[in-house]
From TrEMBL, chain A:
Source species of the chain: Chelativorans salis
Name of the protein in question: ABC transporter ATP-binding protein
Subcellular location, principal: membrane
SUPFAM superfamilies attached to this UniProt entry: P-loop containing nucleoside triphosphate hydrolases
Molecular-function GO terms, alphabetical: ATP binding
Amino acid sequence: MSASPLLDVRDVSKVFTMGGVLSRKQIKAVNEVSFALSAKKPEIFTIIGESGSGKTTLARMILGSEVPTSGELLFEGKDIAARRGAERLAFMARVQPIFQNPFEAFNPLKRVDRYLASTARRFLNARTEAEMEGPMDEALQHVGLSLREVKGRFPHELSGGQLQRTAIARALISKPSVIVADEPVSMVDASLRMAIVNLFKRLRNELGVTIIYITHDLATAYYISDRIIIMQKGHVVEMGPARPILEAPQHPYSQLLKRSVLSFDGAGGGRITRSGREEVDTSAEALIKGRLKPAGDGRLVRVG
Amino acid sequence: MANDILTVEGLKAYYQMNYFGVEREVRAVDDVTMRVKANEIYGIAGESSSGKTSFIKVLAAAIRPPFRIVDGSVTYRFNGTPIDVAHAGEDEIAKIRWKHLSYIMQGSMSVLNPVRRVHSAFKDFAFRPMGLKREAFWEAVEAHLARLHLEPGVLRAYPHELSGGMRQRVTIALATVCQPEFIIADEPTTALDVVVQKDVLAMIREVQQALGSSVVFVTHDMSVHANITDRLAIVYAGRIVEEAPTRTIFTAARHPYTRHLVASLPRIGDTSPKPSLEGRPPSLAEPPAGCRFHPRCPIAIERCRKEVPVLEERPGGHRVACFRADEALSPAKVLHVEESLS
């Protein structure tokens, strides 16, 4: 057997049980998802889906903060859910999260460099100020900031873009090999959005970090992704190389998503039309029971 | 002009604070002149903290201290009678509110009372302005809900029982049920998923066409503007820097900020590197002297640091506030701000 992949997701499902004893309801948030990330080739791996598609649940399982109901997630060959104590800490250092809203990720009453310092203390076992500041500054340099700019500042003293970049720098301190970014640009302005996604590209190219980019924005996904999976109601409906899929999606649901992207052709005509979701949903419902089949050019499409 | 429904002249609205003797003035809306025609969707685009929300607060006549109108006028013309909401009394504004001038708000969950059924919101907002008998009123409401593809049953539902898209459609129905001539929409689709967003936008357009109303549509998302607005104003640090028919903004913008916004849009099928703008929007409490964009502008000259450019009229209903508007902006200069490129 060849070297085990960096992250191996094997038939992972997650079922949430809601309600009391009498009105118990089971919700399948994630249904038999499988994919693998290679250790040799860092990439930007994108998970696309609407709210309720299970993309955040999948991300939480990758981070180890949710245990799958069935299936297993292996990080460097070892089950994520089975890691405890020092092993788990080592895993957390290697797989780091970035959250959606930078203004909510930081406590407004704490200086932002304290977050960086506590990360350095925890994962690098840094004890003195000098030991902490080296890695902190290095991480901030990677995102185009420096410790001098950030030190002693409160979150409200930084702009949204600087805060989101500080959040990314915090994730970089422990030198992770995977960063899980859950909708990192949906709360930032258009002009900052490109700064963040360009930064992801640079982290992949220069630091060799694999980024799991979770989004519902197909345009930025097209711009930065190497591979994508498209999820609908917990099922993967199409997965494979990003650009061919987004240029010519084959599954009806992927086609619906592509159609719903607001285009710039004929800007100002005011000729917006509805997405036609009603027609698609019925046909997709039948397809959900289907299987993922290879469809040439390296992609998998769910067919009935 | 005769068919202008809204005329804003030299509007200045500041937040004026005086805490413990320390005076602070935030110039959120600084010298804005614009008009909105009947039966058009007028877009306002700008980053957060560019003052766009403050501006629509003035348009909606929802001004509370410390926010004050310092100068200028905001005149609506409903049925031929002008009313200046910047100076009108509360009772005069109450007469036009909701019947002629309504507002689609951003967070549908905070508009609808979570512990009351949807119909009570319609009763609270629309019953009095519409002035109909009870049965005729509910008939009108149901007919209007059908326009937004909502079943009459949603009236019996609690807000949490509806999906995000349905809730947003309910708030749109609420804002348009009185058939107002003027609707202000503040980021009505920002919180929605792509598919739902497209449906809601299409419905806003359908309702606008059916009623013949004017809409001021505010969002930072340029792709939304491209698809729904007829004319578009770009706001930067409390001022309009460019205004033109939407098509012109996307094809022949003159202001460097607008050009950057358009150039940085990612599109499916386009793999070229996209620039990102460095720096941050200026603080409105201490805006830079001269053109407020000059610290981030790739083509700023000495004059930009000293003088404030005025919004100049050009052919084709195009207005630009830039000394360098005629400068041919080479792609290399657009990209000069780009540092974080792969």
